[in-house]
Amino acid sequence: MSTIDHSSLTSDPSTYHEKGNSSDSETCNDTSTHQQHHENTLASPTKHRQESYVLKRNYAASTRLNCQLFLWKLELGYSLHPSIASAFQPTAKASYTPRIADLATGTALWAFDIARDFPAALIDCFDISLEQCPPAQWLSRNITVRRWDIFSNLDSEIEDRYDVVHIRLLLLVVRNNNPRPLLRNALKMLKPGGWLQWDELDPWNAHTVSAATEENRPQSQNAADKMGEKATTEFQKKQELTAMDTLRWVRELDSVIQEVGFEEVRREEIGCDHGLAKYFQDMQFLVMEEEASSKSTEREKETVMRAIEEGVVESQEGRARVTPKVVCLGRKPQG
């Protein structure tokens, strides 16, 4: 991938935001027109899309998302890819006010992290629900959150607006193996020369790791393997997919990004740091608990909770199921 052209990063803040309420007037150099507003809605979320989200949006789910962000940063070594971040550093000749969009933002903590690292950036966070975001008054002055179904039609006011569009962890959200509608929206949102960064799990290469030596490892299938297989089977049923089709889009994500019109596409595969394996496994138990609460029968709930109990014991003994990460980058053509 070539070095990012600084000329594509303009300091041209739009005027559709109003002045923010935060007292932190030093957070951003150019935020007088940037508004943090929870109810600035681009399109009404569809009932079907809201109900298709299988996890919770309560305080426990928010805590899980926040923990997840820091674990990802430890594993990747960054929140914003270094090849993109390097273009945001002020030079002797000029400084930049990059505009960043975070799609499916969840708790908006990724944006808060980026705002700390890049106080001159203006960051817009989008999600179908803002239940997990802080009140606008508590956000950094350069962050705004907006309600929007990211799979719906794009509003013209956010076309050609951003230097970076960031997406993370839509494994349970993308339907029919087709991320193209979202990628087309991301492409339209970017300025010419702007960058997409999509961080995703690679479930095809999930596997179990053990602290034991090979000769001492149990030969029978362990609880972590069973949990992984069960989760995959249930996902197939929900999305009516065959085993071969399940999450195929993740394997092909870089090719699809190129197909919809991005250039300089790059795919990076990040292996699992075994030192973080137990932390990620514990977080997965929280995901399973959230899913268990949505089961239709007590028997189904008990089955999941029993699997978690078995998994916890094995995790304490040094066995965990880990899932590698994939980061895909792509650039909108300059012309």
Walk me through this protein's architecture.
This protein is α/β, with parallel strands linked by helices. The chain contains ten helices and nine strands. The strands form two sheets. A seven-stranded mixed sheet has the order 3-2-1-4-5-9-7, sandwiched between helices. A two-stranded antiparallel ribbon has the order 6-8. Helix 2 (59-76) runs antiparallel to helix 9, helix 6 (223-239) runs antiparallel to helix 10 (298-317) and helix 9 packs antiparallel against helix 10 (298-317). 34% of the residues are buried.
In N-to-C order, the SSE pattern is HHHEHEEEHEEHHHEHHEE
Question: How is the biggest beta sheet arranged?
Answer: 7 strands, mixed
Q: C-alpha Rg, in Å? A: 21 Å
Distance between the termini: 18 Å
- DSSP strand (E) fraction? 15-25%
Q: For the largest beta sheet, what order do the strands appear in spatially?
A: 3-2-1-4-5-9-7
Number of helices: 10
Shape: globular
Per DSSP E runs of 2 or more residues, the count of β-strands stands at 9
Which structural class is indicated by helix and strand composition?
A: alpha/beta
Low-confidence stretches: 1-33, 214-220
Q: What is the helix content?
A: 25-40%
What is the average of the pLDDT values?
Answer: 79
